[in-house]
Amino acid sequence: SFRPRFSLVPNLKNKLRDYPADSIINEQLQNYDDSGATEVVFIYDKRSHSTVKMPESLKCAFSKPALLASINSYFTEKDILSLQTIGESNKRVDPSTTGKFGVGFSSTYHMTDVPSFISGNNLVFCDPTCENVCSFSDDPGDWIEIDSEPKLKEEYSDIIRSYHINDN
User: Fold this and answer.
1) pLDDT tens digits for 70-98?
2) What is the model's pLDDT at position 100?
3) Long-range contacts of range 102-105, CB-CB < 8 Å, 24 or more positions apart?
């Protein structure tokens, strides 16, 4: 059978090639605005985190400095599903949204190969190169409901702890 194929990494490279890296924060602010956030705090996190309780393939990504963003809202399931599309924004038809051009979250690939976030009970990893997350998932990313899987919550506890801004 014939079916079109989509290559994620070249698509991202093409999208970012013509997109200015200095607009990343604006794109993120649009995503946060669309999620209902009224407060955003960016923190350059230089802390060293334990990597004992995380998959081996993620230790490198989570042992380096990170840019953390804390917002006073959560991404909905619809928002998280939208973040999985590249250049196919569902926001185009919604006049109440700020970001509607399909760049938003993709701009994070200017800063990292493996963007991730916690929103509510969801731990989300994006790994288009399939070099990190794919070692324990068949997809170029993973979406884990933290409290519904106690074993994973324990196995990923060092990752979850790394998102806590007020910890020393």
Assistant:
1) 889 988 888 887 777 765 555 555 555 55
2) 47
3) 103/15, 103/19, 103/27, 104/27, 104/28, 104/30, 104/31, 105/27, 105/28, 105/31
CA distances for 32 relative to 9, 25, 29, 37, 74, angstroms: 25, 10, 5, 5, 9
Q: Two tokens at 51?
A: 């990597």
pTM, full prediction: 0.72
* Distance from C-alpha of 168 to C-alpha of 34, rounded to nearest angstrom: 31
Whole-angstrom distance, CA of residue 8 vs CA of residue 15: 11
Burial of 102 (C-beta count, 10 Å sphere; 0-12/13-18/19+): middle
Are 51 and 158 in contact by the 8 Å Cβ rule? The answer is yes
Contact call for residues 108 and 84 (beta carbons, < 8 A): no
Residues above pLDDT 70, as percent of the chain: 80
